[in-house]
Amino acid sequence: MSTDMQKESGYDAWLHYHRYCKAENLPAWCRVIVIQAADEVLQTAAAELQLGLTSMFGQQPKICTTPVSAPFITLGTFREHSLAAERFSAEEQAEVNAEGYRIRGIEVPEPAHSAFHSKADPQGSYVTVAGQTTKGVLYGVFHLLRYLQGGLDGKLKPATEESLQAPILDVLSNPANPIRMINHWDNMDGSVERGYAGASIFYDNNAFIPNMDRLRDYARLLASVGIQALSINNVNVHDVETKLITAAFLPDVAKVAAIFRAYGIQIYLCINYASPIELGGLITADPLDPGVAEWWQAKAREVYTAVPDLGGFVVKADSENRPGPFSYGRDHADGANMLADALRPYGGRVIWRCFVYDCKQDWRDRKTDRARAAFDHFQPLDGHFRENVILQIKNGPMDFQVREPVSPLFGALEATQVLLEFQITQEYTGQQRHLCYLVPQWKEVLDFDTYAQGKGSTVKRIVSGALYDKSASGSSRRKAGVHEGCGGFQEAQTPPLLKPANYGFAAVSNIGADANWTGHLLAQSNLYGYGRLAWDPELSADEIADEWVRLTFSGQETDDGRADLINSIKQMLLDSWNIYESYTAPLGVGWMVSPGHHYGPDVDGYEYSMWGTYHFADCQGIGVDRTIATGTGYAGQYFPPNADHYESIDTCPDELLLFFHHVPYTHTLHSGQTVIQHIYDTHFEGAERAARLKDTWISLREQLDETMYEQVLERLEHQADHAKEWRDRINTYFYRKSGFADQKNRPIY
Amino acid sequence: MSTDMQKESGYDAWLHYHRYCKAENLPAWCRVIVIQAADEVLQTAAAELQLGLTSMFGQQPKICTTPVSAPFITLGTFREHSLAAERFSAEEQAEVNAEGYRIRGIEVPEPAHSAFHSKADPQGSYVTVAGQTTKGVLYGVFHLLRYLQGGLDGKLKPATEESLQAPILDVLSNPANPIRMINHWDNMDGSVERGYAGASIFYDNNAFIPNMDRLRDYARLLASVGIQALSINNVNVHDVETKLITAAFLPDVAKVAAIFRAYGIQIYLCINYASPIELGGLITADPLDPGVAEWWQAKAREVYTAVPDLGGFVVKADSENRPGPFSYGRDHADGANMLADALRPYGGRVIWRCFVYDCKQDWRDRKTDRARAAFDHFQPLDGHFRENVILQIKNGPMDFQVREPVSPLFGALEATQVLLEFQITQEYTGQQRHLCYLVPQWKEVLDFDTYAQGKGSTVKRIVSGALYDKSASGSSRRKAGVHEGCGGFQEAQTPPLLKPANYGFAAVSNIGADANWTGHLLAQSNLYGYGRLAWDPELSADEIADEWVRLTFSGQETDDGRADLINSIKQMLLDSWNIYESYTAPLGVGWMVSPGHHYGPDVDGYEYSMWGTYHFADCQGIGVDRTIATGTGYAGQYFPPNADHYESIDTCPDELLLFFHHVPYTHTLHSGQTVIQHIYDTHFEGAERAARLKDTWISLREQLDETMYEQVLERLEHQADHAKEWRDRINTYFYRKSGFADQKNRPIY
To answer: Which domains does chain A have, with CATH numbers?
Structure first.
């Protein structure tokens, strides 16, 4: 693909580094990069910096290992690079955690940054990017590139050629979460489960794709937003994928690991719990069987011989027909710990998914409640897991619906490490044919206060480990004038945490072999946003949208139109989740999608299924009674006061009303509207708003590259049409079922 | 497969020829078969007779071409075989049509058969099977074998060893329909569209299956029930199948044709209407374009060079996204006639399907009515088609639902030849996992009086051509003492119709590569029944079931249990359609199945689709208003008095009420029950009756081969469970929607 094609198609995403500075104005400090004797990751950092600067300024900076007399940029760790060490005090260095960084520019104006005096003199003035580790330095380099490209200086224009001469930069940034992971649901036949952006970039025809160039490009995207862990195969491990941990595929796994290692990313493999039977010829996979444990120990030795820094195994067990310890009368702790013991000698982790429920439920049975399942299965096991086991918990109790309450398992595990699982791929949120910027949804989850240990026990503090880390100072380290910051997992004093704790984020990838990675170009914002949020959950949805739009559309704008372009696209993103929610399943009840592929409206699609996903609509009312008093008792899985808020129909928030209560259509919401009229109103308005997304985009036509314009337009046109289909099917369903007319007499069929 | 395995698995179906006579009791006349100088089909007839006799009697009869002094069987045509000619008078011979036969036994008792004196003397006594053609003789041989195996003498036992010595047989049988066709919806990748009995027996991996032995076994089954036409590929002609009419595949087509030719069966190919573009590189497939016509003429020459007796082409055009003449502003007559002209020099036919409707309907649009489509498209074209064009019309206006009215196109075409299309494969009737003997449904269609030319204008007389054949004597030629008879297409005098007219039956096959051909062993009865009915529409569902059960289960019984076995299985068959209907979509409204695969209940599965298949249920009522007065006007497509009967809610039969009318749930049926209570009652009862099918089968366990018992039991158990699912989903749907309680207070959810 030519460079032009890449830019136009969106292949370069937020790393396309639009050139905006004439070569003759190139700032002096951008002509030389001085690095320490480099490991692989630092070499990557230098090369990325060189690439970005070359693209933006039209001249390739030199990379050298000794200081020059002219201004320069220098990269290195405090410990191994004297230029880095001398730029920051011991205290300043100690504030950086294992994967954090500091950046200091040539000048620091008074008085805001009085603590950080520039030590550069005019002859040897330099910009420093430094960290405890070269990974930290790499992340710092991407920060610097974002700054230079996006003009992240609070103005709506990129850094000007003038301001570039003496950059005002003094940054401390630590990732809040030690684990920042992406899960690929890629199958080796080349398909991607719940993939909406083409085929797998890893596999085809039951083998690894021979040309792995694209994996490197993917690693760049991930590292640029701080992702450092990647599981490369579907959690549903089928026959061929079961063999990934055998000699048949380990050499290829090692090749992939090498590509991502250069970008500071550890890979993980999803394993089949029945491997001892399917691969080993044993008659059991019972975790307490000594032969099984030995088999896994030998397997771990083999796997780590091939890939010494493998992150570990991701396991979906006893879930949706996958094998697991239940088959042998064992529990999840038995299952996970046996694997953990096998991986421990190599520093490997077991990431054990909590998506366990009865997927053969009888729809006639109103007592069983899938929402309860994760808590009921795992809360009693709290404290039973090894220290290299991490439980991966989906954000909500069901399955990535457009609206769910937060999983009550967050906060319910005090002595067990957890990962929060989001879904970047838009399985239930429009499948990258509808626009749905998910960061606002994720923010609500992260900011949710579980009250697990009193007020302030937010999900973000639970999943970063901060809530349980008595030595950590708290959730936010943001300081005045410092753009980014925060961090929960760092220890208070040196030495910093070089072996981070096992907490953080995981999320299902939304990328595939489509030229623009995500099918819908604007869906790139979700991958970007996920990475940024995993680094810093304090960032707002607006800030992240702003960054992503600036980086992605830089070079598209005229000077006059840029503010309009950025604000318009940003507003499209920020509105999109609410728009999508408004024309799909109402008031938190979820589902109402076509079974199987999950695309498009089907109100009763899951109503009579075995999946535990019901709305119970009849001619009188709708909703699931999950109260303690008269329902499934799910509300009682929350700490007070959340439990009480959800239990009471008076305090339950409107947007979750039907998740917790079965109410008549005539029930009046806090909004003052009845449930049935709310359904009609939101669906009519939602479809109109979806159409306006398209209109907004059309209004930006002159400012956009044609191919980018066209590819997004096609999706937005589909969305506008499909939103009408949603509107009419949902409204008609409820009109036919309830008999209530729309107060505004709009067409319902 | 060993012979034992075959019998147990059901592979031999109704041709398994159970041995029931000791060799020493072998009747003398069964020891020698005397045939005329034989063509291929007569050789087949002799070989089949030899095979059957050997199997039943344990001794292989000799085949010779000259009479012997002992009793014998002789086979031949009146014209070429003097033994056949001398046994029947000129008048008797003239009563036989092109594919009919006469059989005369050794003795004919007085007085019932006074017209048929035996001409055999004790020394040279013989049984004669004769016809105008060797195909007729072949069908006569299968008749004789049925008689010998099944004891089709009106008693419940097989022909006794005593009665065999001098068989009482004097049969005249003519097929009512000149075309008796099976359509295969087989794809060359080995899949079968709407196939429920395993993979294709014709194709695998985009090629013909190398070992064609099974095709010969299939030809035997078909010929034994009088099938003489077979289309071998799916009417939806995909890329690879488009090439069947090219040198790539014609040699294989010729091989297949040869196999079926030996059994008197002509093969047909389904063609892609866009072939001139896809194969010929033309820029159009416009039927009025001279280049297109020339392309097809050359193609016909090529195809008929490879397969000189190819039956012709079957065409699905302008239907469900298939290409057709509409693309060029032409009509179906233009399209069909152009192909017909190309095939005419070779005696080929064009079978043009009338399954044409708008498959992109907007569900909001209540004016468009898919049921109207076939009539609206084709009735105006009556008389516009060439004489070698046949329109193939599905039995109902929709698509093979468990209950539909008869297509109003039957009788509406006075000057156009037609085929009636049934669906043997149980797409909408339980997919061969539920028992559904379809002959009773087909009988209702055949006996339906269209009143097209006054009373007596039954569908069976329309599709046999009899209604339009002023020279034919009528629909039934059954005579006292003659087991089979009837025939509409034969001419009154000699010479008989050697080139039959283009009328008859077609049906979608239900067979596949499963060992027992049809998945559900009892579903063999539908293939058998279809063939028998195509031969003689006067046969009752009961008679056909009786034949099939005797032939299939002969040898299973003890003497004591045989009557019970036959009656029990026969009753299961006869009840099964009504049972299936009772627990599925009610009162003729149809659909309510899962979209796509069409299996299992989904009341709203097609309610908001583009397929034109709606029930319009709301909280007040249900049904489609197809009246002239207030609805789509579909009822007006029938001749009076049918139109009036359907138009009026008072005279519309209950079982079709919701097909023609939208009524409140409180509407009282002719049965005296309300619609809603009828729904509840039939669904509760239907599920109970389905469970009783299983119980009946279990009661027969001792009399059945174990493998046959087990394979059917597994299906009946599934059916009993699945019928409960249907019951509960349908009942719950309507209870939730209507709010009406069951009068008997049975569990609804």
So the answer is: 3-173 (3.30.379.10), 179-474+482-539 (3.20.20.80), 556-624+662-749 (3.90.1330.10)
